[in-house]
Design goal:
Blueprint: H1 2-9, H2 13-44, H3 60-63, H4 65-84, H5 88-92, E1 97-99, E2 105-107, H6 111-119, H7 123-149, H8 157-188, H9 191-194, H10 196-218, H11 223-247, H12 249-255, H13 259-263, H14 271-274, H15 276-288
Antiparallel strand pairs: 1-2
Length: about 300
């Protein structure tokens, strides 16, 4: 289901408009917070308050909203690096895959694969939970203080609003924490890599992309350009197969691709005769619907 949602959103126009809108509101929120902080400091001048004791009614979060906001932004930066940059951003710049340091091509819409990579590290849930804690404090105070700023600060409604804020924020952030814990468990037990349905989904994403590239090659009329495109597709196909082996091992085992084909380069002349593995690959590819060509 998660991979389907990733494919539905991706870099489609409606997802980009929604992301742009959220980004504008988020940046405006940050700038406004800094402006208010600077105004407060300017109003106080160089001298601090004469009374330094903090009343019991003043919450710690109310005095450290800027600090909490910075922690939340840092957490979001980590989240963007782990997911947005590798997924939607790759589609925006025209890439179908994100290539890891190990040379594995991961489809930009294969969300489950990125979950595995991120939450396989024990530090990821730690960073996320710290970020969620800061988010809870930030949202909890921000919720009821918003109404207080609007004038709902009487002795009857303010306590009610604080309770509503605490309950609502706890539910939202609590669900986020449960997700982080569950993602970590799934990654550590290898569920994202060994689930047959996920393997099938990810493999189909690869196949669909190779099919589209093969169809584009058929439209090329110039022989030299066509041969160059075919050679490029062959190289990509081999890399894709190695990637399927890495992130969809169950499906790769079903495909029965010889190991030697993943290691040895394709010889341009008489490739099928010199490398029987290539012939087996082509037969298997036809069964999967992959239309590629090997220069003979």
């Amino acid at each position: 289901a998660y991979n389907s949602v990733c494919a539905f959103l991706g870099a489609n126009w409606y997802a980009l408009i929604a992301c742009a809108g959220l980004a504008v509101l988020f940046i405006a929120h940050i700038l406004y917070a800094f402006v208010l902080t600077m105004q407060n400091r300017k109003a106080r001048g160089n001298d601090s308050y004469a009374v330094t004791a903090t009343p019991k009614s003043v919450e710690w979060s109310s005095k450290n909203m800027l600090v909490l906001g910075i922690v939340v932004v840092a957490f979001l930066a980590v989240h963007f690096i782990q997911f947005w940059y590798k997924m939607q951003f790759q589609e925006i710049i025209g890439n179908h895959y994100y290539e890891t340091a190990e040379g594995v091509l991961i489809p930009a819409t294969a969300g489950s694969a990125f979950l595995h990579i991120a939450f396989e590290s024990i530090w990821t849930p730690v960073v996320y939970i710290i970020g969620f804690a800061a988010l809870w404090l930030h949202m909890n105070h921000g919720f009821w203080s918003m109404f207080q700023s609007a004038g709902w600060n009487n002795t009857i409604w303010l306590p009610r609003l604080k309770k509503i804020a605490c309950g609502w924020t706890s539910v939202v952030v609590g669900l986020f924490v449960i997700q982080a814990v569950w993602f970590t468990y799934e990654a550590k037990t290898g569920s994202y890599l060994n689930d047959p349905k996920l393997n099938e989904q990810i493999t189909n994403i690869y196949i669909e992309h190779l099919q589209k590239e093969g169809q584009e090659i058929q439209k090329i009329k110039d022989p030299v350009e066509r041969e160059t495109a075919i050679a490029k597709l062959q190289a990509e196909e081999r890399k894709v197969l190695r990637s399927i082996k890495a992130i969809a091992p169950v499906k790769f085992a079903e495909m029965g691709i010889p190991e030697e084909y993943l290691q040895e380069p394709v010889v341009e002349e008489a490739a099928e005769e010199k490398h029987p593995a290539v012939k087996q690959l082509l037969q298997k590819a036809k069964q999967l619907g992959i239309e590629t060509e090997i220069k003979k």
